[in-house]
Design goal:
globular; two-stranded antiparallel ribbon; 221 residues; mainly alpha
């Protein structure tokens, strides 16, 4: 009897290791994401304390939410193991750090940029509320969300990022900023496609995709 129990215990230890490893990696990824978002939060706070702009306050609030979301988000039932998907997530999330407030600052560009950034912040706030603890970084399944802006497009958070990046470019027009924005938007498009590839394994996603045919821009894509 004792020998049998020992045998069962020995067999259970190796089986528990993958679960512990997955949890350790998940916690590490959450802490790394929160740390990266905290850097953006610090930069945004310094900018707000200098300019006292409404847009700056919105950026601070958004980044504070992202820091908290990384620490409190729901564990995924499935997550991508493709290195390419993780690289796209890094580029889309942190590529904006390469943007610089240089180049042309045309009056019309500053105005249009402020409008785009304001719209992006409002859209991101609505997406954050709809996501709740299902906020993600790389392609993963953290429960399908279909409320709020997710009734209009399937990836409203990435759409918000596009508006924010284009708004920055409009205010600080330069070739280097245009190149950064092009790369970051390409990464966000790749992230959307990677998420859809993973979620296609869920039967509920087919129905959602039929109800909401657009990914980022209604009537376009």
């Amino acid at each position: 009897m004792t020998a049998t129990l020992k045998s069962v215990a020995v067999r259970q230890v190796p089986a528990a290791r993958p679960a512990r490893l997955a949890r350790t990696l998940r916690v590490g990824a959450n802490l790394a994401g929160a740390a990266g978002a905290a850097l953006f939060l610090r930069a945004g706070l310094e900018h707000f304390l200098t300019t006292h702009s409404v847009i700056g306050a919105g950026f601070v609030a958004a980044q504070l939410w992202v820091v908290i979301a990384f620490l409190a988000r729901r564990a995924p039932s499935a997550v991508t193991t493709r290195a390419r998907d993780w690289l796209l997530a890094v580029g889309g999330s942190f590529g904006g750090v390469l943007l610089r407030p240089s180049g042309l600052h045309l009056t019309v560009g500053v105005t249009v940029g402020a409008l785009l950034q304001g719209a992006g912040l409002l859209l991101s706030a609505a997406a954050f509320v709809a996501l709740g603890r299902s906020f993600g970084f790389s392609a993963a399944d953290r429960r399908l969300k279909t409320s709020g802006p997710y009734r209009v497009v399937r990836h409203p958070l990435y759409a918000a990022y596009v508006l924010l990046e284009l708004g920055y470019l409009a205010q600080s027009l330069s070739l280097s900023n245009a190149a950064v924005v092009a790369v970051v938007i390409s990464c966000d498009i790749g992230r959307a496609l990677a998420e859809e590839r993973l979620l296609e394994e869920s039967s509920s996603y087919d129905g959602y995709r039929a109800r909401v045919p657009w990914r980022l821009v209604p009537g376009l894509w």
